[in-house]
User: Fold this.
Amino acid sequence: MHTCANGDTIVLVRNSADASPFRSASIKDIARLAKVSHSTVSRALHHSPLVNPETGDKIRRIAEETGYRRSAVARSLVTRRTDTVGVVVTHIADPFAAEVVGGIEDAALERGFSVILANSGGDPDQEVRAVESLEERRVDGIVVTSSRVGALYVPMLARMKVPIVLLNNQHPGDFVHSVMIDNVEASIAVTRHLIEAGHRRIAYIGDRNGHQSDTERFEGYLTALANADLMFDAGLVAQGDGKPTGAPAAVERVMAQPQPPTAIFCYNDMTALGVMREVRARGLKIPDDISVVGFDDIPFAEYVDPPLTTIRQPMHEMGRLAMRTLFGLLAGSDSTQNIKVPGELIVRRSTAAPKETR
Amino acid sequence: MHTCANGDTIVLVRNSADASPFRSASIKDIARLAKVSHSTVSRALHHSPLVNPETGDKIRRIAEETGYRRSAVARSLVTRRTDTVGVVVTHIADPFAAEVVGGIEDAALERGFSVILANSGGDPDQEVRAVESLEERRVDGIVVTSSRVGALYVPMLARMKVPIVLLNNQHPGDFVHSVMIDNVEASIAVTRHLIEAGHRRIAYIGDRNGHQSDTERFEGYLTALANADLMFDAGLVAQGDGKPTGAPAAVERVMAQPQPPTAIFCYNDMTALGVMREVRARGLKIPDDISVVGFDDIPFAEYVDPPLTTIRQPMHEMGRLAMRTLFGLLAGSDSTQNIKVPGELIVRRSTAAPKETR
DNA sequence: CTGAAAGCGCTTACAG
DNA sequence: CTGAAAGCGCTTACAG
Assistant:
């Protein structure tokens, strides 16, 4: 309840017994209290120079005192902007997604944007539904991480919907706007690191889910082997599932070879965690008996024992870059943006020279 | 562009050179194409029984073909609901927050709700700003995790704003609606676990940021000691910062005691990670020389070496419970909901009997 | 079964 | 500097 100097009073009451939507104070309520038109209230709240400073102050004071909150939904209807971006991730609890969203959040906050989260669960259909739901909510832009749909968005875009940028697109083929880690180069770098340490038999444990990033990392692995004139041995390649649980079977397969590997390159850090665990369960010491490398540099990579050698993806920065691209698009840029971000080789103690060479 | 059987045509054009907000198709465009009123279109899109089945089908087909997306913002303005919940977290990249948000997401999706994310950065002022921003966006409800404001929301609520539920409130004192882990009981359980293993000198490494949860966990620790008739030694208590980085100094302090501890109870798993690392750097073996326990059971707790004994917080489930409470409130419930969730002691290999007793 | 009308809470030319 | 008016894209009584 707010009582004015002139005795006017406003009481907002929940309508009836249940908590169904109640009417919150509107610009008109403030107008009545301030004895001005609602147009003037609207201007005052925007600090428009068109309103008398004293009137403006009075209006803002009343708004403050009554706990008035302007309705972003009403505003959006007329401005046709929601100052909102949608982000679709596979699972928010995935450390990669969480870090990326952190970067997106930061960039959004700087511009007064909010972010709406949507899950794809890694499923193409659910991903499309998530994007559609975001479109209904009239977000100003969308970033899709680890998309399984990728280029299929092109026709949607042709219909002139919201701008979309993909972050680490997992669908083969290019998309108009994207920020991607340079998987091939990074993969060459880790593999070369192992080769230079003296390894000749290097296993690759991939991801059976057919991610584009897996294809590219495998490609980098092959390239590095070729560059060093090392033979490729298909027996040293096995598939995991991107999670620790997929590792044991894959380790079993490569270690069963007549000449087992002295190093294992894992598709990602989560796989590496499972690999380290399985390798250790087999009584092997890391890195003395076998070297292990991952990919991503998730926050825990440095806390496992031994700390994991890996490729750092600048996840937070990638989130920001995706937002910068989006803001550029919103500002009218219509150029294609395909940003390729370099990974960084982080050498820790899970890698060393192979036994034989020492 | 959409061309109708009757030759009518609709073309939507971005207005002018820049990508400024363009007009997306509205219910009226569909109405024109279908040669009905926009009221009928609205009904058809809702599958209202009030519309002729054939007319309805025709309308929906046209909507489909033109890629029409109803505007949730316009709908919200009239229905006074946004089918949206706001979630404020300290940092989304925090594993605890990410898991909780995962549970919230799942519960939201089941009811067709979207979630808007907002960061508090652990700062009370920013937390309040985040909540206000969510109110402006007219979310139907808000869940605040690890609130630093807690009971201070009461006056805001008195103004009849959006329902708020706190998840693991970190502000002293109770709030109307909350879901909390039972810190005291859980803390008694881990401490008792150590005592039963034979430990007599148990250190506690807390969190200097003054979280309510730290106070409660410390309380549980004291209670368990007292229950076992063990003397409390202030020299065995040190403060970390909830992150691995805060651990070394704290370990230094407790290990410098004339009689160092044989076990360390850490405020949370992140602290335990740092403790394990520091303890190992000092040449001590875990658990042979010293036992370490954490709190939370973050996803990585089982992958560190040795796997960490800890208290599992059912984070995902807690997120769902918060949503259930919110939905109850939205459905008209006006009862106070203070849900206390039990933690679960997960014994792994970072704890064992102390050396002397073996 | 259908349409005309009012209204949700704002913003913003337009006229004073 | 201020107000009346139109309109953003929907929903929903109300009258046929």
User: Anything to note?
Assistant: DSSP finds twelve helices and 14 strands in chain B. Chain B has three domains: 2-70, 81-182+315-342, 183-313+345-357. Residues 1-20 of chain B have pLDDT under 50 and may be disordered.
